[in-house]
Specification:
five-stranded mixed sheet, Glutaredoxin, about 140 residues, single chain, 6 helices, globular, alpha/beta
């Protein structure tokens, strides 16, 4: 068995970034087993591949928070992994994002464990949080 990959960043740097999502109801997945248990659930799951980068802080996380506050349609489950921290869990989660290369941050909707919508880093980077929120609200209306 290969040794577990070490996190890229000290936990004290990452904790506030984790909290931005967990404080609004996201379940953090830190092991591949937790990923499978969470993403295979029945219903719609909003998955955020969280990241330390500036576009996660300025666009992705605020956009997700805004969308969840504004959207009348809500996903059944909220889940997140942190890229560069729990690498095995992140790799497992990315395995559900079929047809897309690894991207962080990224935002996805899964229905009954199957990907139905995806927003990749290149669609997040450089765009205002409000635009990210609008995209997500539209996806929530369509898929939830």
């Amino acid at each position: 068995m290969l040794p577990q990959a070490k996190p890229l960043y000290p936990e004290e740097f990452i904790a506030p970034m984790r909290a931005e999502l967990t404080q609004i109801g996201f379940t953090e997945m830190k092991t591949p087993e937790q990923v499978d248990a969470q993403l295979k659930q029945t219903g719609t799951t909003l998955l955020v591949v969280n990241s330390m980068c500036g576009c996660a802080a300025r666009m992705a996380r605020p956009g997700v928070k805004q969308a969840l506050a504004e959207s009348p349609a809500k996903p059944t489950h909220l889940a997140t992994v942190f890229a560069g921290q729990e690498r095995e869990a992140t790799d497992k989660a990315r395995g559900y994002l079929t047809g897309y290369p690894p991207s962080s941050p990224s935002i996805a909707l899964l229905r009954d464990g199957q990907l139905v919508w995806m927003l990749e880093r290149w669609q997040i980077e450089g765009r205002p949080a409000g635009d990210i929120a609008a995209d997500l609200v539209d996806a929530l209306k369509q898929h939830c």
